[in-house]
């Protein structure tokens, strides 16, 4: 069982988008029962709020299911041991996550675009308004992560 937690600032835009994209990808590969995929926030600002309408709209356009009961939750230090991959969207998320967990002795923290040829940050559509670009980056990153898992016999 591979356990992945996607992490962004508020857990309403990028990390739930990555959560649902990855769930869709593993389902299409017939691997749904081999993964636990979730998402969370480094901040408390949006706790309890639903997925952003822009994220929902973009996922619906792509025919990717979005759980209607998904609500923003904050990553807790105790969550570190529950997951194999802690996948952040940008450098700020990485710094904030490391403040929560204090250290990463098992090397579980990655940026999503680390799994692509063009490393970097995924822009926050909360600020940019560009959910299309965010989706493209997340889709590419999730495909790269799944390929990494399959190529490295992590299942």
Describe the protein.
- The protein has one domain (2-151): 3-Layer(aba) Sandwich (Rossmann fold), CATH 3.40.50.2300.
- The relative contact order is 0.21.
- It is globular, with a radius of gyration of 14 Å.
- α3 links the parallel β3 and β4.
- It has helices at residues 14-28, 53-61, 91-101, 125-128, 131-151; strands at residues 2-8, 35-41, 85-88, 109-111.
- The protein has a 4-stranded parallel beta sheet.
- The longest helix is centred in the C-terminal third of the chain and has 21 residues, at 131-151.
- Helices cover 39% and strands 14% of the residues.
- With 155 residues, the protein is an alpha/beta fold.
Give a brief description:
This protein has helices spanning 14-28, 53-61, 91-101, 125-128, 131-151, and strands at residues 2-8, 35-41, 85-88, 109-111. The protein has 155 residues and is α/β, with parallel strands linked by helices.
């Amino acid at each position: 069982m591979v356990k992945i937690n996607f992490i962004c600032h508020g857990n309403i835009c990028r990390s739930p988008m990555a959560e649902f994209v990855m769930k869709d990808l593993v389902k299409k590969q017939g691997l749904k029962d081999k993964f636990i995929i979730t998402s969370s926030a480094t901040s408390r600002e949006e706790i309890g709020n639903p997925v952003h309408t822009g994220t929902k709209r973009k996922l619906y356009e792509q025919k990717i299911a979005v759980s209607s009961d998904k609500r923003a939750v904050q990553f807790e230090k105790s969550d570190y041991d529950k997951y194999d991959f802690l996948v952040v969207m940008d450098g700020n998320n990485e710094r904030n996550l490391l403040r929560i967990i204090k250290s990463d002795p098992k090397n579980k923290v990655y940026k999503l675009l680390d799994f692509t040829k063009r490393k970097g940050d995924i822009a926050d559509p909360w600020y940019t308004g560009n959910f299309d670009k965010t989706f493209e980056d997340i889709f590419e990153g999730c495909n790269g992560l799944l390929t990494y898992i399959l190529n490295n016999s992590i299942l």
